[in-house]
Automatic annotation (TrEMBL):
Taxonomic lineage of the native organism: Bacteria, Pseudomonadati, Bacteroidota, Cytophagia, Cytophagales
Keyword set, alphabetical order: Hydrolase, Signal
UniProt-annotated stretches for the region Disordered: 32-59
SUPFAM superfamilies reported in the protein's UniProt record: alpha/beta-Hydrolases (SSF53474)
GO MF annotations, alphabetized: hydrolase activity
Organism the protein comes from: Hymenobacter swuensis DY53
Name the record gives this protein: Esterase
Pfam families, sorted: Abhydrolase_3
Listed Low complexity bias regions: 32-51
UniProt xrefs under InterPro entries: AB_hydrolase_3 (IPR013094), AB_hydrolase_fold (IPR029058), GDXG_lipolytic_enzyme (IPR050300)
Annotated signal sequence range: 1-23
Residue span, Alpha/beta hydrolase fold-3 domain: 152-357
Amino acid sequence: MTTLIHTSLRWGAAALLAGSTLASCNTAQTTESDATTTAATTDSAATTPTAPAGPTPIRPTGPAPAWATGIKPEMQAVIETLASLGGKPIETLSAQEARQQPTPADAVMKLMQTNNIPMPPVTADTMSRMVMPGVKVRIYTPKGATGTLPVVVYYHGGGWVIANLDTYDASVRGLVEKTGAIFVSVAYRQAPEHKYPTAHNDSFAAYQWVLKNAASFKGDPQNVAVVGESAGGNLAASVSMMARDKKVMLPKHQVLVYPIAGYDMNTPSYQQNAQAKPLNKPMMAWFFEKYLRGAADGKSPMISLVNANLKGMPATTIITASLDPLMSDGKMLADKLKAAGVATKYENFEGVTHEFFGMAAVVPQATQAQDLAAGELKNALVK
């Protein structure tokens, strides 16, 4: 499959997963053209077309893989579809090659197409702004919103190496719709071109930029939270730590979805889910090798969150997946936060894998997880 095909597929997947087509917002700032292609108009003189078939139940085509006992049928269907796209093992590739591989978002798009799952209407407008050279943010504003709104700064996953704002567009749009808040999704610089702690410093710079500039996009600078998935969960927690240590306003809440929270790849979930998909132990070793300058970085409190000083952190929601090498990281971090006196809510979702959170279009557990995250954010952010 060519790079062009992958690029268009990834854009389409972002819109489909989010349950909306991408929209643009007319502002004086740099505005993204997030339009999607509309269906061709049918000639009224032509034969009346038959009504399209409705959605069909999503079911896997084969037995559950050996590593995934108890996997939910919809989740298994996503994993099967991802395999059918012909991607190569990430850990065998260069970073540049890995960034061109099919993603779970691509798999969900294909699954939606083959099962006649329609796109719901657009619920958010987007625009881009530059925080500093090399660091861009995409601002999602609920359609028709009026007045000043809470702001959530979002950090995408990808092991600090792969993926981008489009890959995780679904998660953001789902949360925008469920919270009614403005979301600011951060495109931090990635490894190996930019080693640790670049992504962490970029993420904190973006957070500070939001605090200073929220009013310019109708956001409330006193009502800010952070959310992150995977490596982004690590970044979100690190931003809270840096804010605490540098005496910058703390986020009102942090939602960490299957965060990377440690450098130990011999935890129970790393051992149990060593060969899981779409994330496995060899991939995590590859991510660490690409981002970290050496083993000493792995012991940094911003990588090994479970060994950091967690006192004074904001109230936290942690979501994990049972079929994920990072499950133990999330559970251990939740326990350490509670021990440090931080109000913490932890929930593990059974039968699903890493990356499930953005799959609400096809995986029921993703809807449940997004509802949980949105509920905690709404409780924390006073309108």
